[in-house]
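Chapter summary example.
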Amino acid sequence: MDAKSYTSAARSSNSSVAASPAIPSQTAQKPLMTILGWRPVRKGALLGFFSCELASGLILHGCTLNVGRNGQKWIGLPSRPYELNNEKRWQRLVDFVDPGKYRQFQAGALAALAVWFEEHPEQSTERAEQGDPDDDILF
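The structure predicted for these 139 residues follows.
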C-alpha cells in the first residue's frame, strides 16, 4: 500500500469510527452527584440541609441550600459553628483549592437538587419550615 492509499484508508477508518455508535460505558457517565436526603429549614438565607454522593463515591453530609436577597440560590459546604468575641461564625470542614472547581460543584449540586425536587415535590423549598440549623439530625 502506498502512502497516498494508506492516508485515504486512515481517513476513511477514522471517519467510520467517528460515525459509529459510542460504546455504552463511555456515554453512560455517572452524574456529578446524587442527592441522598433533604431537610428543609427556613432561617434567614438558609433553605435547608442535604447530603450528596459525588461521582467519586465521597458522601458529603451537611451541605446547605441558601438563597440570596436577589433570589439567587447557592450551596454551602459542610461547616461547624464556633464563637469569636461572642459572635457565632461558621468554619467550612471541606473546601476547594480552585474556586472554579467550587463553582462547578455548586452548579452540579443545584442541578442535582432540581432533580431531587422534581422527584420529591412534597419536599420543595417553598414548603421549608422554620427550624434550628444546629439540630444534630439532618434528615
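To summarize the output: Residues 33-127 form a domain with the Arylsulfatase, C-terminal domain fold (CATH 3.30.1120).
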